[in-house]
Amino acid sequence: MLTTIIYRSHICKDISLHSLKDMVAAANLKNDHADVTGILLFNGTHFFQLLEGPEESVLSIYHHICQDKRHYNVVELLYDYAPARRFGKTGMELFDLREHDREEVLQTVLDKGTSKYQLIYNDRALQFFRTFVEATEKENYFEIPPAESWDFIPDDNARSTTAVVVDNAADCSFAFQPMIDPFAQKIISVEALLRTPCGNSPAAYFEGLTGKARYQADLDSKKIAFAMASALKLGEFSFSVNLLPMTLVMIPDAVNFLLREIQINGLVPEQITVEFTESEVISRIDDFTSSIRQLKAAGFSVAIDHFGAGFAGLSLLTQFQPDRIKINRELIKDVHKSGPRQAIIQAVIKCCASLEIAVSAVGVEKPEEWMWLESAGISQFQGHLFAIPCLSGISAVAWPEKKADL
Ligand code: C2E
Ligand code: MN
Ligand code: MN
């Protein structure tokens, strides 16, 4: 199927315009062979390229382009299908925007088009061209340094606890993972993640539990979470626990149970955030919002987890506004390379800023993901890059330190 990819990238320093022309000539041989056509724009700093052809070929050429050392911060802007090529002449022309008059440059680009209709009507590819040529969205270009420009240096503040004995409590354990502000070198809070006694996942813990038993086990497990938090001397930190949204609906008196366990362990509700997964929240929003009222009245904070991964999206925020939104790995993964992920995360950030909702990113694994998110305005992170979840303890945090000039 005729497939289109558009990307934008930043030229490396020390690349001459002359060598660019050679590069295009070499690329043309390959493109011709693969039946890939398109157009390449250059504005002195950024490349903007449209590739079109059979899906496999376009993907394979794009993959090679991503590896090319002559540019960096390659961001995929569009991946789409079309009935015909927009720029179907053989080869890939290099179009230097600086050589043309500002007013006429877009028309000059379009004159190279070979498709009769697509470039006239509201074609998304055309809109991307217009935006690039007119440079109207430059504020969204975050040029991040290479991953190697940071060292991640573990501190020596790991802690663990072994013996947490809680009478007749659910048979479970917890792993703890800090949420940090890397530049402030500060732990913001610590999340308690449910585990089976031997350290298996929450899914393993809930396996076989159905109906009310599932919610009861979810609630009961928090007895252990609070006891462990207390044994780990988390008293000075905020920390968070996860709950199925329906746990508060299905178990009457759940909030009082939580309050009692918190008090027994010398904690206060004001230091605790309860996290709910978005997709589970929206199915019974009315019941859920009344539970939220109870939690808030008791002094807890509320976070929405996995934000953006469910169905409700931003419109969930018309129903109620949590104290925090946690953007999950599904959206974070390779955000530095993906136009759609960047746009969605920027929208979430903007929306949360208007509503004074804190935003954090979870599941950050790569330095580039972290750097992009920092540039976009997020400053609180959880992820393997900084600290992995640790069964019955907290692992050392690896704090980023900028290397001296490479
Ligand atoms: P969550 O609340 O979003 O928790 C973060 C999950 O991301 C954890 O998975 C954690 O191990 C994982 N994670 C953290 N950093 C990274 C990273 O850099 N890369 C990747 N790939 N993963 C990372 P975990 O512990 O398996 O928990 C999965 C989900 O289970 C949680 O997602 C939460 O929604 C749910 N859960 C955890 N504890 C409880 C609980 O006590 N009750 C209920 N109902 N659900 C829980
Ligand atoms: Mn969570
Ligand atoms: Mn998760």
From TrEMBL:
The organism's taxonomic lineage, starting at the top: Bacteria, Pseudomonadati, Pseudomonadota, Gammaproteobacteria, Enterobacterales
A Pfam family per the record: EAL
Domain EAL: start-end pairs: 155-403
InterPro entries reported in the protein's UniProt record: Acylphosphatase-like_dom_sf, BLUF_domain, Cyclic-di-GMP_PDE-like, EAL_dom, EAL_sf
Species this protein is from: Buttiauxella gaviniae
Record domain BLUF: where: 2-93
Recorded superkingdom: Bacteria
Cross-referenced SUPFAM superfamilies: Acylphosphatase/BLUF domain-like, EAL domain-like
Name of protein: Diguanylate phosphodiesterase
Membrane-spanning intervals of the chain: none
